[in-house]
Amino acid sequence: MTPAETKAATNLINQLLKEGYYPPGAQPPKGQNAAIGEAADRLGINRKTLVSAVSAGRIKPTWKLFRQPARQSKPPAYRRAATR
Question: What is the reported pTM?
Answer without folding.
Answer: 0.76
